[in-house]
Amino acid sequence: MSPLVPISPSAFNIELALAYATANNFTGNPVYRTDADCWLHADAAPLLTQAAALAHPLGLRLRIRDAFRPAEAQWALWSICPDPEFLADPHQGSTHSMGVAVDVDLIDIVSGLPLDMGTGFDAFTPLSHHGRLDIPPEAQRHRALLLGVMTAAGWGHYHSEWWHYQIDDARSFYPLLSDTVLGDRSMMP
């Protein structure tokens, strides 16, 4: 039985825009099937529920850009950009491949538009680090809002990527998972 649970917009009050199921990512090509579902470990799903609940009264909705990333996908990303500051070396594994990490940004509920975060998702540049003072003040506020919502919900953050949140100390408790754990709902083409 899979330790992963499906993450749907209606069940979690979030938006989904899985970047790796499209060509709109740093690789320029889909890494997942274009109809791939979003998944998280059953231990991480309640944290997502809590974060979405904290964002809603602020007029915000979380938009998931990536969640569970099969180990095979981590290898595919690493083969294009072997930069350990922004991608976990697949030899050690990614918390995404354990199902306990999300890449997320914020959407304004009224306008439906994403908030300016100073860089795009997967911008592999120092400007993507938390605490940058050389991005517009509005983007600094948006990053601080996201950080506050996510950490208040119990997520840990990764200093180099404003969009990446994970369960702390995951490597001690969660195994790396292959796409095969999803059976006939696999994500990989």
Automatic annotation (TrEMBL):
Enzymatic class: hydrolase
Documented EC number(s): 3.4.13.22
Keywords: Cell wall biogenesis/degradation, Dipeptidase, Hydrolase, Metal-binding, Metalloprotease, Protease, Zinc
Needed cofactors: Zn(2+)
Chain positions of site Transition state stabilizer: 69
Annotated positions binding Zn(2+): 96, 103, 164
Alphabetical GO biological process terms: cell wall organization; proteolysis
Entry keyword Ribonucleoprotein: no
Protein family according to the UniProt entry: Belongs to the peptidase M15D family.
Protein name (Swiss-Prot/TrEMBL): D-alanyl-D-alanine dipeptidase
Organism of this sequence: Magnetospirillum molischianum DSM 120
Gene name of this polypeptide: ddpX
